[in-house]
Amino acid sequence: MIYPFDIFQAETEGSVRWFEAAENLEGAKARVQELALRSPGEYIILNQKTGDKLVINSDAVDGAPA
């Protein structure tokens, strides 16, 4: 099965790094919270079906280092 939500992290030089895909938006958000605890930064969740993007800054994630 191909999951529709891709998780990326924005890198300093303007590129993005793909991490994994998620089955639903809630799962993608939860995974971003886990990733942000280990690697702070800006994350992007891309909905492959609609093209919508959700940008999450790790400063906004509960428990993430500042």
Q: How does this model look, in words?
A:
The protein is α+β, with helices and mostly antiparallel strands. The chain has a domain at 1-6 and 13-44. 21% of the residues lie in helices and 36% in strands. The chain has one helix and four strands; from the N terminus they run ββαββ. The chain has one helix at 25-38, and strands at residues 5-10, 16-22, 42-47, 53-57. A four-stranded antiparallel β-sheet has the order 2-1-3-4, covered by helices on one side. The N and C termini lie far apart (36 Å). The model has no long low-confidence stretch (mean pLDDT 90).
In terms of topology, how is this protein built?
Blueprint: E1 5-10, E2 16-22, H1 25-38, E3 42-47, E4 53-57
Antiparallel strand pairs: 1-2, 1-3, 3-4
The radius of gyration computed from the alpha-carbon positions, rounded to a whole number of angstroms, is 11 Å
The largest sheet is: 4 strands, antiparallel
Shape: globular
> Helix/strand-derived class?
alpha+beta
Distance between the termini: 36 Å
Count, helices: 1
Estimated helix fraction: 10-25%
**How many strands?**
4
pLDDT averaged residue by residue:
90
Low-confidence stretches: none
**Strand order, largest beta sheet:** 2-1-3-4
Strand share of the residues?
Answer: 35-45%
- The arrangement of helices and strands along the chain is EEHEE
What keyword list fits this structure?
single chain; 66 residues; alpha+beta; four-stranded antiparallel beta sheet; 1 helix; 4 strands; 21% helix
